[in-house]
Amino acid sequence: MGIALTTCNEARYWSNKTLAITNRSRVSCAHNTSSACIGLITHALLLCYSAAEYCASVWSGSAHTSQVDVQLNSAMRLISGTLRSTLLPWLPVFSNIELLALRRKAATDKLVEKIVKHDSWPIQPDILGTPLPRLTSRKPFWPDLQPVDIKGRWRHNWKSAQVVNSHLLCDRTIWQPGFDLPQQQWFLLNHFRTEQGHSGAWRRKRRLTDTDLCPCGEIQTMSHIVESCPRTKLNGSLSRLHSANEDAVSRLNSYGS
Ligand SMILES: [Zn+2]
Question: What CA–CA distance (Å, rounded) separates 173 from 151?
Fold first, then answer.
């Protein structure tokens, strides 16, 4: 099959390879100020994901997949401009890339479908005969050959994740409003959606400043800035900002000035 992610060192190799490609994408996109999202997603899918998901159907059950996932999460943070403190379920939503485990399962389903169609392939009896795993450390894909509905499973996982401000999204499997904005506005919009941005409370928690107070005297969080601060609040609050309409874009452009 070419590759089996059976040892920690192999996982580290693919993890480092993905990291190197992600960093190259970060450098090449650092000065991109327009239509950031599409360009970054194209970079990620072509460079990072193609390397990180090589023969994924074979090693998808490995205990070391999390090392590769860390680097792919980093690529999704690059696309969305979100901070490290952002909850992981947000990352595929902003990138409009399915959950990593589900993508690997989809690759496995595709491979199984091919095997089932070709009676002459020597591998068919091994897969359909479902041999019992001989080692508990091995997790082959053949015990679970049922194909999954990726979009449906993604929606279910999102519902059970209980993410802050999840009510904003009518469908997390489609492009979110504002994905075609320039990079700075797109990143800022996502900071407000996830409530993880450079507010006073966020900076104080990381000891970057001595105070978490807004100039109005209240504790400054991302939701305070857009929903209750008398100096900066937006009529219609976060839902209006999320829609990325003309007023919202205007507010994003003037934020901080
Ligand atoms: Zn305030």
Answer: 7
237-251 burial, b at 16+ Cβ within 10 Å, e below that, comes to ebeebbebeeebbeb
- Categorise residue 53: left if φ over 0, alpha if ψ from -120 to 50, beta otherwise: alpha
Centre of ligand 1 from the C-alpha of residue 87, in Å: 25
> 234 CA to middle of ligand 1, Å?
12
Specify whether the CB–CB gap between 92 and 84 falls below 8 A: no
User: What's the 3-state SS for 122-156?
Assistant: CHHHHHHCCCCCCCCCCCCCCCCCCCCCHHHHHHH
- In the reported structure, the alpha carbon of residue 2 is separated from the centroid of ligand 1 by a whole-number distance in angstroms of 57
Taking the centre of ligand 1 as the mean of its atom positions, its distance from the CA of residue 12, in whole angstroms, is: 45
Cα 230 from Cα 232, distance rounded (Å): 6
**Distance from residue 237's CA to the centre of ligand 1 (Å):** 14
pTM of the model: 0.78
Distance 90 CA to ligand 1 centre (A): 26
Q: What is the pLDDT of residues 204-236, one digit of tens each?
A: 999 999 999 999 999 999 999 999 999 888 887
Distance of CA 212 from the midpoint of ligand 1 (Å)? 11
Round to whole Å and give the CA distance between 83 and 100. Answer: 19
The rounded Å distance from CA 219 to ligand 1 centre is 7
Query: For residues 41 and 80, what is the distance between their CA atoms, to the nearest angstrom?
Result: 9
